Every structure is written in C-alpha cells, then in structure tokens.
Amino acid sequence: MFSKASRSCWVSVPEISVVVPTYNRIETLRHVVPSLLAQDLPPESFEVLVCDSNSNDGTAEYLAKMRELYPNVVHVPGAYSGRAMARNAGIERARGNVVLFNDSDIVASSDLLSRHLEHHRKERNIAVVGLEVQVRSFEDYEDKRDHPEKRGALHPLGRKRLSWLYFLTGNASVRREDLLRAGCFDESFTGYGHEDLELGYRLQKAGITILYEPRAVNYHWQDVGHEDQVEKMKLAGRSTVRFYRKHPDFAVMANLGMTPVSLGLHSALTKMPWLLGYFDKRAGTSKFARSLIQQYYYVSGIKSAL
C-alpha cells in the first residue's frame, strides 16, 4: 500500500507498460491485477493499463479502489469493438518504452516483467514471447505454480526464436516504438482469433526478431467446454480468411491450415455425417476426437468466409 505522500513523489516514467484488455471478467481480474502488482520490480518502474470495453460487472468500481492504493493502475475504458481495439488504446496510453500484453484471465508470475525486460535492456528490434501455462481453476493454477514439472510447454525449452505463428499476446512484449511503426493491431479483426498472429507477421516482416523466453511464465485460467470451443474455432476460421486476404502469402495459407488438403478432407467428412457424429459423441472423453471435430469446424469457418 502506498501513502498519499509516496504517491505525490512518483514523477519517473515507467520502463514497461502492461496492457490488459477486458470485458466483464471481474472474477479473474481480481486475481490478475494483484499478480501484476506483486512484481519483483520497483512499483514506479511499471504501470498496469486495464483497457475495459465498458464492462458492467463492477470492473470500474474495482479498479477505482485499486487506483486509490496503487497509483500505477490505470483504468482505460472505451467502446472497444474487440481485443485489437482495446489493446491499441493501451498502446496509445502507455508511457513505458516496452509494452507487455497480458489478458484479463491470465495470472502473472512475480518475475514476469523482469524476465521480459532482461531481453529488451540488452537488445533492440525484438519481441519476447513467454510461457503461457493453461490452467482450469485457481487450484490448478496454484498446483502448477508450485510444481513446474506439471506445466507442460508449447515449445522445447532450448528454443530461442519463434515465427509469427507463435506471437500470442497473452504473454508477449514489444517496444512501443516498434508497435507504432508496424501499425499496431488491425482493428478489423473484431471476432475471435488471429489479431495477434497478424501483428506478429507484420512485426517479423519489419525486421523484428521474436524471441522465446520460457522463464517468463503466466497462467491462462480458462475452462472452455467443447461446444464453446467449437464456436471459437468457427470464428478463428473466418479470421484466417481475413488474414490471408490481407497477406496473400503461401506461408500464411499453409501455417493456418487453409490448404487444398484440409479443405478436401473437410468435404469428405461432410459427406459422412455418421462419422462426424461418431467423433462428436466421443469428444468429451477422447482428445483425438475432440481435436478432429474442432479442426473440422475451424475449416467450416474458413469455407463460410470464402
């Protein structure tokens, strides 16, 4: 807690700004914001910008109370049409030279910011992507926080660089000047998916190297049911088409699964509703069946957008 006297002495510019887009996520936000404030950095060296799409669940009131205690918490409300627009509002408002993106359902480790800054202090023309651990509950978060061997990882620990395909903005940092030079997020991505990958694509084309830092850990707290995930995959498929139409690059088409092979397999499965039904019934217990069905609806989204 900071006294009024200490608050009045804060005149330095923060080194890093954390941008958190949110909409009606107060239940997780109550854990996320304190985790970002409990960093192993001096509090005046960072700020937490919560870019709120006019939530009506008590978010504004909660942030007002936090602001009274922590002057580095900033509420940035607005009529944002999606996460891209909300994050852009945070980039515009940010005072730090480095911007770190963290979502409103992702709990931070106490050294998250310092791990990102370790790279930005040594190098320029880089982006840094950390390790985002998937958890289903607060208890699962505590378990994986205390037992690193249970976390799992998307990439081998020894990997140093990533392609734009893995520029996932639940745990990614970039210099603000590089974001502005690249044009920030494309706000036409209003549905689910790919606004972060598309920015990563442009950053990489602009000469930004994307580094992987597995010691920069945070925990994505979500438990999405199969039916909800199916709807997300349909929207992600539509976003894939938007991405490709903006960047008609074979690498985009191939990496995002918009290929003649995937489209052909989709058509074949569509002609076998009994097989689709078989896998759909087993999606709750079989990881393979769940993945196959979700991929099918992802391609359905691609075809509907085409």
Protein described:
- This protein has 306 residues and is an alpha/beta fold.
- It has two domains: 4-221, Spore Coat Polysaccharide Biosynthesis Protein SpsA, Chain A, CATH 3.90.550.10; 226-305, no CATH class.
- The protein has helices at 4-8, 26-37, 59-69, 83-93, 112-120, 138-146, 176-182, 195-205, 226-246, 250-255, 260-270, 273-281, 287-305; strands at residues 16-22, 46-52, 73-77, 98-101, 106-108, 126-135, 161-162, 172-175, 209-221.
- Strands 1, 2, 3, 4, 5, 6, 7, 8 and 9 form a nine-stranded mixed β-sheet that branches.
- Helix 3 (59-69) links the parallel strand 2 (46-52) and strand 3.
Short description:
The chain has helices at residues 4-8, 26-37, 59-69, 83-93, 112-120, 138-146, 176-182, 195-205, 226-246, 250-255, 260-270, 273-281, 287-305; strands at 16-22, 46-52, 73-77, 98-101, 106-108, 126-135, 161-162, 172-175, 209-221.
